[in-house]
């Protein structure tokens, strides 16, 4: 019989009658009396023995027990978990001697290794130092891994989705909206893993998979690590890949906002039927707009190039116009419908082209409004026109990020991915976005 002895106050005389002929007591907490007994049993060649035990950690044994846990053959009974800020409670509980299983202090204990290795480390990133220059002006640099401040988290980038706004900032097209300080690391749509949390962060801990919107004013996405605000970060379900999730930010949120807020479509399918036109339905925003619109009570007409007609049909569009044909350029619905709302994701189409295709109270929701569109917007407003042009600027909300992630998790929404590029070749992704012919989202991965 072998006994594992883990309690200080049981004497040899209590064990002895319970041992079989060659029974051993392995004493995990040997006291002087136990050493005496051990020596005595040795010198008298007793068949029953007391063996004092001292732990000697071996890497291979650690691997073995981790393997057992992984296979479900061994589990850790957890007595209690304590935040590092209340580590003294865990300490007192251990001294108390009545823990049932292990006492755990969170959040740092599992990730001390990663943290130690990041302190003062450099990371790969891409930045530009002035306006203009396109893909060739993106410089590969090594910069310090940023440190999260209050209410911020440090995230290891697993996927970044590019948007036209990223290179429009570089071109200086949004100077009044986002005045830049150089150097600037572009990119805002990031999915990754939390590696460190700043003071005051309660929602996340190291190891959490997240989706985070960095905002154009900060950028920082084209890098191995990014610092993100807790408020525009949400948990990413394991069913949704990093690339699928990253695509949802600027593009998905814009499509969602245009349909629900500007066009008044209810995505639970209630509400009266509306005819919707979606231009550039094969692009980052358009592909989500088609899928989301079809969750509502809508008839969707979509425009795209000939090569993407089958794809856009598969996303749910009811009828498709090839924008390079005369009918496509005129935006005329093949079934003769007038549009209650246009989610305008292309550029360069004038009000006079839209106007005859709109229903009485039809709206054009313009996500790239230029000066002419802003003039039309003002004109339609002051003349109380029933047909309106509505400029849209996406405003990120965490509840909408969660909503879209959940749709992907449930298989009701997907991210069409144009291409994936390693960070070491992110300039190719940048050039692809500037080219303006992406089908779905362009993704950069570490
Ligand atoms: N207001 C906001 O907050 C906001 C938010 C997000 C995006 N945006 C803006 O919205 C625009 C679209 O963004 P995105 O990410 O969807 O762009 P994108 O992914 O780069 O769009 C590319 C797609 O558009 C198609 N396309 C181009 N011109 C077209 C036309 N005249 N008719 C039909 N399809 C056309 C292209 O098809 P082909 O390859 O066949 O030509 C391509 O598949 C950009 O200007 C962007 O800056 C604004």
TrEMBL record:
GO molecular function: oxidoreductase activity
Protein name, as recorded: Enoyl reductase (ER) domain-containing protein
InterPro entries: ADH-like_N (IPR013154), Chloroplast_QOR (IPR052733), ER (IPR020843), GroES-like_sf (IPR011032), NAD(P)-bd_dom_sf (IPR036291)
Domain Enoyl reductase (ER): 133-444
SMART domains attached to this UniProt entry: PKS_ER
Gene3D superfamilies: Medium-chain alcohol dehydrogenases, catalytic domain (3.90.180.10), NAD(P)-binding Rossmann-like Domain (3.40.50.720)
């Amino acid at each position: 019989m072998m006994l594992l002895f883990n309690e200080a106050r049981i004497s040899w005389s209590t064990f002895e009658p319970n041992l079989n002929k060659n029974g051993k007591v392995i004493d995990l907490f040997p006291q002087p009396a136990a050493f005496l007994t051990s020596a005595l049993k040795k010198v008298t060649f007793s068949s029953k023995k007391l063996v004092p035990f001292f732990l000697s950690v071996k890497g291979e044994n650690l691997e073995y027990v981790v393997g057992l846990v992984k296979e479900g053959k061994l589990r850790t009974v957890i007595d209690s978990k304590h935040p590092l800020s209340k580590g003294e409670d865990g300490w007192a509980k251990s001294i108390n001697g009545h823990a049932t299983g292990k006492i755990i202090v969170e959040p740092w204990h599992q990730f001390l290794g990663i943290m130690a290795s990041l302190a003062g480390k450099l990371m790969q990133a891409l930045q530009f130092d002035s306006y203009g220059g396109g893909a060739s002006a993106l410089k590969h640099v090594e910069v310090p891994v940023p440190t999260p401040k209050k209410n911020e988290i440090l995230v290891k980038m697993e996927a970044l989705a590019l948007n036209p706004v990223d290179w429009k900032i570089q071109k200086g097209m949004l100077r009044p909206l986002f005045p830049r300080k150089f150097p600037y690391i572009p990119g805002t749509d990031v999915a990754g893993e939390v590696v460190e949390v700043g003071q005051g962060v309660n929602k996340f801990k190291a190891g959490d998979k997240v989706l985070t919107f960095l905002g154009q004013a900060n950028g920082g996405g084209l890098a191995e690590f990014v610092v993100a605000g807790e408020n525009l970060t949400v948990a990413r379900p394991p069913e949704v890949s990093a690339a699928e999730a990253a695509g949802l930010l600027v593009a998905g949120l814009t499509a969602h906002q245009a349909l629900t807020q500007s066009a008044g479509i209810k995505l639970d399918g209630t509400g009266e039927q509306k005819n919707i036109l979606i231009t550039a339905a094969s692009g980052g925003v358009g592909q989500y707009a088609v899928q989301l619109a079809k969750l509502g009570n809508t008839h969707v007409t979509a425009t795209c190039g000939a090569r993407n007609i089958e794809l856009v049909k598969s996303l749910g569009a009811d009828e498709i116009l090839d924008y390079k044909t005369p009918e496509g350029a005129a935006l005329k619905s093949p079934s003769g419908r007038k549009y209650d709302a246009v989610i305008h994701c292309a550029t360069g189409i004038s009000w006079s082209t839209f106007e005859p295709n709109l229903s009485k109270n039809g709206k054009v929701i313009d996500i790239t409004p230029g000066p002419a569109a802003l003039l039309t917007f003002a004109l339609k407003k002051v003349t109380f026109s029933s047909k309106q042009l509505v400029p849209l600027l996406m405003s990120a909300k965490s509840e909408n990020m969660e909503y879209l992630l959940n749709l992907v998790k449930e298989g009701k929404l997907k991210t069409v991915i144009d291409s994936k590029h390693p960070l070491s070749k992110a300039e190719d992704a940048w050039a692809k976005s500037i080219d303006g012919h992406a089908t779905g989202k362009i993704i950069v991965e570490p």
